[in-house]
Amino acid sequence: MDVSVLGVDLGKNSCSVVGLDATGKVVVRRRMRRETVIAYAGTLPPCVVAMEACCGAHHMGRALERQGHTIRLMSPEYVRPYVKAQKNDDRDAEAIAEAATRPTMRFVELKSEEQLDMQTLHRIRDQLVGERTSLMNQIRSLLLERGHIVPQGRAKLAVRLAELLDADEPVLGCRIHRLVSDMRQRWTALDERIGDLDAEFTQAAQEDERTRRLLTIPGIGALNATALVAAVGDARTFGRGRDLAAWLGLVPRQATTGGKPRLLGISKRGSRYLRKILIQGARSSLPTMSKSDTRLGAWLRGLLARSHANTVVVALAAKMARIVWALLRHERTFNPVAQAA
């Protein structure tokens, strides 16, 4: 039995496995548990093992790669067109194996355990920030119901809480006073946990050569740099900078028909988190960069003269994504080019 491509449809407990020979004929069709898949692949000669890029795929991919197999991970969106007739696990595994043989298929880079750990830390921090924002809004609504209007901003809310809770004379009712005090303690605990993660990101950014190169880009801090390196690695998966910007959803959507090109808003594909922090970094650096005597500054001033500021921010985020690709791919640091006289 000569297996050239092994397609694996991963499940929580059981997996469907389909093997194709060199001609594309199905020669293996089995169902087995996750640990059995690794043991079974160990009995095969080196071949291509294809999976969808989903939960657990990178861990299994690293285990199979150590056995000498070539790992190909694909987005489920690109596998879906190869599913024939009714959908089931066996058909999915066959579609995965067939999609892996396509010369134009786009594959996902196998991530290391360190990259996955860093992505997990970013997800936890984003969740904590969301919990803190929700808690602050809840505190504002409780105070508003009792006639205390608090301006926007974390600092102003903290000052107002200090005035209401630490005053000599009680301002709020006894029960509400205890409730809001407990909510403030939860807020403080969330701030401490977020601060600890930020410190960990800062230390990790200083220890990695790739993140240190990204830190030379205006608008890129330790949070952006560690998240980008964890997601794209050395960026060799992307052939050019625009491909990375498109992967992040920062390029226009196309609705071309009849040979008439029509560009719409940005596609918003890919990671919403990466796109968000890039746009936030672009917004913070725009005032300084637009005043700089560089070619990038001249380009930004031209955009500001004819476009809305929010449009310029997104355009700058897309430009930053291209710069990130160039620095990671060619192992350089950012050096702004002065504007020609």
TrEMBL record:
A Pfam family annotated for this UniProt entry: DEDD_Tnp_IS110
Residue intervals of the Transposase IS116/IS110/IS902 C-terminal domain: 212-288
InterPro entries linked to this entry: Transp_IS110-like_N (IPR002525), Transpos_IS110 (IPR047650), Transposase_20 (IPR003346)
Name of the protein in question: IS110 family transposase
Transposase IS110-like N-terminal domain mapped to chain residues: 6-144
Record organism: Sphingobium soli
